[in-house]
Amino acid sequence: GQNIDQPTEMTATEGAIVQINCTYQTSGFNGLFWYQQHAGEAPTFLSYNVLDGLEEKGRFSSFLSRSKGYSYLLLKELQMKDSASYLCAVSYQTGANNLFFGTGTRLTVIP
Amino acid sequence: ETGVTQSPTHLIKTRGQQVTLRCSSQSGHNTVSWYQQALGQGPQFIFQYYREEENGRGNFPPRFSGLQFPNYSSELNVNALELDDSALYLCASTSGGSGNTIYFGEGSWLTVV
Question: Which of A3, A5, A57, B88 has its CA 20 to 30 A from that of A99?
């Protein structure tokens, strides 16, 4: 891949806030996606960032800094059902959907 | 529900055999791509098809090949199966262009024994 790095595992408490970080190679950057993937299921789209700043969508927000090659996914008011893998994926080509994925961050929400 | 459907959902093949996986993309989506996801890893890009032509390929050998049909449905073919080909194979579709959401199907679980 293109050095898409994210933590392997995280644990957080129900009702809390958790931030999942992702760093990537900046050269040729064309957009960043976050996906949620429950065990044994396909990834589901959460967010897309192409410009710097914060995109908020309900309990989930995603931030991008293109100059730093950095993004984070913020999950608020955690629920047990949020236990899943969160995948950071970067596009390096205009008009293409060949994404480079990180290995995913497995989030466990505990009571 | 993403509108992307794949078949079969699960299958078991023997080393050396050939397999064909199928994908029906979301209505109006002319761009489809295939990914391989090994256990505990993120998906890896295999190739992309746009209007029946391959227009992008990842680091996969030629025994991984594909087709896209006029209705934009697609096939992934893998010849001479190896044990390491055991993985979840994901199809993704989009209407093309930058910034368009990429939708994944439920995937096909392939086990090679």
Answer: A57
For B50, name the nearest residue in chain A, comparing CA atoms only: A96
- What CA–CA distances, in Å, run from B62 to B11, B57, B78, B79, B104? 22, 10, 9, 9, 24
Separation of alpha carbons B100 and B30, rounded Å: 12
Region label for B69, one of left (φ > 0), alpha (ψ between -120 and 50) or beta (otherwise): beta
Q: CA of A41 to nearest chain B CA: how many angstroms apart?
A: 6
Q: Report residue A103: phi and psi, to 5°.
A: -80, -10
Per-residue pLDDT of chain A (111 residues; tens, 9 = 90+): 468 999 999 999 999 999 999 999 998 898 999 999 998 888 999 999 999 999 998 999 999 999 999 999 999 999 999 999 999 999 887 656 678 999 999 999 999
C-beta atoms of B102 and A93 within 8 A: no
